[in-house]
């Protein structure tokens, strides 16, 4: 059990979850040591600890801080920012800027995951609609980024964390969707490169090839409709 | 234009939106005067102001504070709590309790509206699934409430605001779904009665009969599939 002083911090997670990665990046930014516990997410193999710590959604990531669970990634990142507030502020302190950041994280939560999932897990019309809406949404995000260095301005923060973890799936999206992010969203890709210069990001994001392998396996095993 | 000192506060809203009502209840709790601007939500009639202030989602509620827009109801309520922080605190100050409150508002956002909509706007299997999941979700919320007076404990707050505005639609849900909330969720209904003792709630929630009329009209006009 890793402890920092009196603290006990445990993360229930799954290696290629972009939501789990958000928590890992935030903890790395804050320099918080923690015990990582990889979870089996198959219904019948979920750990007793996961079921007890997140009885409502029964899903990762769950941060367990001194025995108390915090669930849902954007909520966890806000919690991390509030508790370990001595370094690397992630959310702005100004209420308007904070609301602005929350708005964009909510936008990412509503638009990116589900459209990305459709792109690799579905076929036909649904796949096409997912691809179209994913690219459109990322262009909206490019508009919001504009010529800023990071979404929050000069420093890497809450919105950057929420979005950059999806980059690890970009290769999978491109492969299944037969398109290029570099061509579609060059401004966003330049931002990705800036984010990757941060150790918290580069050391957290898994290898894109491994994620593609995982997606291919998942599609074959769970998503392909028998004809 | 209503002003409080140097403040200009405008709310773009629609009378029977449970999301808009959340903002109205929060502003009433804080005693903030504002200009209410009812919006026409039909695509071709949306106001220039709504399109300019919420270009991403183009929907209400939008709070415009000194010319700057804040969008998405749970985000707006948090903003209100942070800006007008001299009275009626809505979110707890402790980071863990705050994360706990945010978790439940997120749960309400994910479970209640869409299942309620299916119940009155859809038919057949989809309607039945909506009814079942709506009642199940409210029972989960009853479990979280337990024997507390309000979701946050002794005082009315963020989670209470997020959920109580749905009460104005309960009569519509019961009528379309042919069931009784009093029978299904007695603990929650006792909580509703406590909330209604607050003027901020009782003076904000519209008449249930009018909402039923609106739902019947909407279903006939927009949702009934031609056979």
From TrEMBL, chains A, B:
Its EC number is 2.5.1.18. InterPro entries: Glutathione-S-Trfase_C-like, Glutathione-S-Trfase_C_sf, Glutathione_S-Trfase, Glutathione_S-Trfase_N, GST_C, GST_C_Tau, Omega/Tau-like, Thioredoxin-like_sf. GO terms for cellular component: cytoplasm. GO terms for molecular function: glutathione transferase activity. The keyword 4Fe-4S does not apply. GO terms for biological process: glutathione metabolic process. PROSITE patterns: GST_CTER, GST_NTER. Residues 7-88 form the GST N-terminal domain. Residues 94-214 form the GST C-terminal domain. It is an enzyme of class 2 (transferase). Keywords: Transferase. The keyword Nucleotidyltransferase does not apply. It comes from the Eukaryota. It catalyses: RX + glutathione = an S-substituted glutathione + a halide anion + H(+). PANTHER family: GLUTATHIONE S-TRANSFERASE U26, GLUTATHIONE S-TRANSFERASE, GST, SUPERFAMILY, GST DOMAIN CONTAINING. Belongs to the GST superfamily. This is glutathione transferase.
